[in-house]
Amino acid sequence: MKRSVLANRKDVVSAVICAYPGGRLYAAAELGMTIKKFDNQAYENAGSRPLTDDHIHRLEQVAGTTFLPDYVSGLYGGMFVPLTMPGTLDNIDLYSRSVKAAAKRGLVDQIISKALDDGVIEAGEAEAIIKALMHYMSARYAEVLATIQLHSKTTEGR
């Protein structure tokens, strides 16, 4: 999934709403708000307080996105690595994770190759390379953790 650079929390909220199935009307219903109240909080209109992190988290659970943790971890120079729930892994899932991580690594290499076409890596190209690298590293880290989780001995005597 391609993601734009989210420069601030308002961009995060907007991205979550755009990704939410059914859009803002369904997002408002998920949070038990009228559409007017939701819009005011989502877009911080009329001096309204913004949606809370808990609200955004609830919406992201349905939308299947991780914009907020990606944004917050990026503020600290880190990366968000989603962990799997115990008991939900199998070898097919591991293979899928491996393929997705490899594709993200390939994207990093493609961006580098394209940036080097003119012999110079510009600031915008460097930012795109780092962003793609962080997505690859996150996917690879999650893949390795899932492999360890699936194939580790459990207390049940595996």
Automatic annotation (TrEMBL):
Superkingdom of source: Bacteria
Q: What is the protein name given in its UniProt record?
A: YmfL family putative regulatory protein
